[in-house]
Amino acid sequence: MNTEQLAPKNVNDAVKGLKALAHPARLTILCFLQGKEATVNEIVDLTGMSQSAVSQHLAKMKAFGVLKDRRDGNRVFYALTDDSFANLVDALCSIYNR
Question: Of 33, 60, 59, 36, which is closest to residue 47 (Cα–Cα)?
Fold first, then answer.
């Protein structure tokens, strides 16, 4: 039994991360971004959603702190922010991809 508790700031960060996962489109995008970065157009092709819908999901995940972006000319690349969140996404994708 783990008696360790999360600090209040960490609880809020954990809730933000879980909210980022709590939508089918966002979880699909996060699984796709495991270990790589992708443009909005690549994500649109993957999901079949409109560019506007994908952009809204990406903005929400960026606000939750689970995605970062990088500009290269007129293209924007998205990736997971850090390995710890990538490990969580990897675990979920592995569990539900059996």
Answer: 33
